[in-house]
Design goal:
single chain; 430 residues; alpha/beta; 10-stranded mixed sheet; 4-stranded mixed sheet; 15 helices; 16 strands; 34% helix
Length: 430
């Protein structure tokens, strides 16, 4: 066994004769002596040290065997997986007018029919719940709370048939949250709601106004307060190069309003997507079109630190699985057409079927397996990337013609994340 090619090493400032190792295959972090690192590279580790480092993904049986293992990464996951992640777009209608909405102007307009809702529920029950699979279902839009009746129509039979296997979630702008509706939906298995706050009020209201131009921030905060004890509230935000520095003020406002880390689920901010390619939003020039824009790494690291300073949890870097590569995951549009990612809905050539005629679990047009090439397989960051975000490639070029390489972004951010999360005293010696 020798050192995996998917391991990064960093100097250990407090102990110059040690280094910090990070395994991209597992997300594990360990401190080792330089002599242990040399032995790992040479394949001469002691049995005890080798056992520990192999267990946590730092060692591999050899370059060719490790490459074969990586090529089969998603084959193994799909063969063993007994869980489906589903996204259901109930309506394309929305009461907000966000300038970066990737659904703006796309067909189909309007709502899911009751017939399509019944077909969706029947498909999920037949293909997943009846086989004992867990189903995590996101009700999405547009704004899904414009059609709570459709949530009930889909969730009620799945809740009854699932035997505890159905888990419902909602992605909402938050303006229509209220206690009466969420009490009803929580009883049908809706466990969480993700809302979006794009900064403190003066910033958020610019990017997420109602159709008439009025701000939505305080309505969202009111709704969160009404339901935070009924369902788990997750908070997201879409920042731009001009707005990301405003987010610490949002965090302070949330704390002042009583939305402390123990009362919320995840709090995570991501860049708004703009575009240069024909496939995205060329009119929204403030968002990022590639993941290697120079301001993005700084924004991600600063906001991560601000979250941690206030006690909010942050995800640790680790292996990435896009739903495009997961055969059981599916996004269903309001008209019943099926996609492998909700961001591609309405884009010509990306539907993988529909609820009436059937659908394919794989999607060549999305760049399925596009990372299976020499440059990616040789890259130490592969398990954190696997070709990057396909929608970002569509934004950049107008089609998924190659990988959306994240090498520069990962090289600029992971070391700081690893150092910040290293547990004191965790080390392996030769």
């Amino acid at each position: 066994m020798t050192l995996s090619r998917y391991v990064s090493s960093y100097p250990c400032s407090e102990s110059p004769d040690h280094v910090i190792l990070f395994s991209c295959r597992t997300g594990a972090v360990v401190r080792v002596s330089r002599s242990t690192l040399d032995a790992a590279r040479a394949g001469t580790l002691s049995p005890a040290a080798a056992e520990t480092l192999e267990k946590h993904g730092f060692l591999a049986p050899g370059p060719e065997a490790e490459r074969a293992e990586m090529l089969a990464w998603f084959d193994r996951i799909n063969a063993a997986r007994r869980r489906a992640g589903m996204v259901a777009v109930l309506t394309r209608r929305c009461n907000l007018a966000c300038p970066y909405c990737f659904e703006g102007g796309q067909a189909p307009e309007g709502d899911m029919s009751e017939e399509t809702a019944d077909l969706l529920a029947a498909m999920i029950e037949r293909e997943y719940l009846a086989k004992g699979w867990r189903v995590d279902m996101d009700f999405y839009g547009g704004e899904p709370l414009l059609r709570p009746d459709l949530i009930r129509r889909i969730a009620e039979p799945l809740r009854a048939a699932g035997g505890g296997l159905f888990h419902g979630n909602m992605v909402s702008n938050g303006t229509l949250l209220n206690r009466a509706v969420m009490t009803d939906l929580a009883a049908l298995g809706i466990e969480s709601v993700k809302v979006t706050l794009d900064g403190p009020p003066r910033v958020h209201d610019r990017y997420r106004p109602y159709g008439g131009g009025a701000g939505s921030f305080h309505d969202i905060l009111r709704g969160m307060g009404e339901v935070v004890d009924l369902v788990k509230i997750h908070v997201g935000g879409n920042f731009t190069r001009e707005t990301w520095r405003e987010y610490p003020a949002l965090l302070d406002l949330l704390l002042a309003e009583g939305f402390t880390p123990d009362r919320l689920g995840t709090v995570r901010f991501t860049p708004a997507v703009g575009g240069r390619g024909s496939g995205a939003l060329p009119h929204f020039a403030e968002g990022c079109a590639t993941c290697d824009e120079p301001w993005l790494a700084e924004a991600e690291l600063v906001l991560r630190e601000e979250l941690m300073k206030r006690g909010f949890g942050v995800p640790k870097p680790g292996p990435f699985s896009c739903m495009i590569e997961l055969e059981s995951d599916l996004a269903v549009d309001a008209d019943g057409r099926c996609y492998k990612c909700p961001a591609f809905m309405g884009h010509e050539g990306y539907a993988v079927g529909d609820l009436r005629a059937g659908f394919s679990p794989t999607a060549p047009s999305y760049g399925y397996n596009i990372w299976r090439r020499e440059e990616c397989l040789d890259c130490s960051w592969l398990p954190l990337c696997f070709g990057g975000c396909r929608f970002m490639k569509l934004v950049e070029t107008g089609a998924v013609t190659g990988v959306s390489c994240q090498r520069e972004y990962l090289a600029g951010t992971v070391e700081t994340m690893v150092r910040r999360g290293l547990a004191p005293g965790r080390s392996v010696q030769q």
